[in-house]
Amino acid sequence: MQIILALLIGGAFGMVLDRVGATNPSVLGRMLALRSLGLMKAILLAIGVASVLTFGGQMLGLVDVGHMSVKATYAGVFVGGLLLGAGWAMSGYCPGTGVCAAASGRRDAIVYALGGLLGALAYTLSHDAIKATGLLANLAGGKVTLGKVPGTNYESLFPALPGDVLGISLGAVFIVVAFVIPEQIAPKDRVGVHAPF
């Protein structure tokens, strides 16, 4: 039943990604170039609502904090983030949107997804060599949160700060920003000047 539920939720999420234009590299390119921020607004709103519901649900006892998983912080995360951002800018896809676009039949996305699988294989094969560089050594205690989340054993950078309240507050900030930022920041293209996206 859990697998069926995961497939249904994943399919619904993919449908929403496609509906808001996240599977179109031109839309993603315009967002990254700050020429059309509709998709960014949708992403910020989704993160904000999810944060408010998750941490609010934890405070009300509706969400089991045992399901919360904090990933370790290490230098490799920053290097990987830079590589992800560069790949996103060059291809017009991030891993989630690339898989959704491939499922919709886009040939470039199928190539992108295959490239991602090859990259994952290369990382797996070179994991020991990468680990030897120290890029995977924990920073700031490894699995650490900003504020203390009740019912968890994770260390926090600011133990006096309630993690649930911080999560709700940051979620509210994301929601406000999603409504405040304009659809466009950069000026529209001038007539006769062709943009790359």
From TrEMBL:
It comes from Phaeovulum veldkampii DSM 11550. This is Uncharacterized protein. It comes from the Bacteria. Pfam families: Sulf_transp. Keywords: Membrane, Transmembrane, Transmembrane helix. The chain crosses the membrane at residues 42-60, 72-90, 160-181.
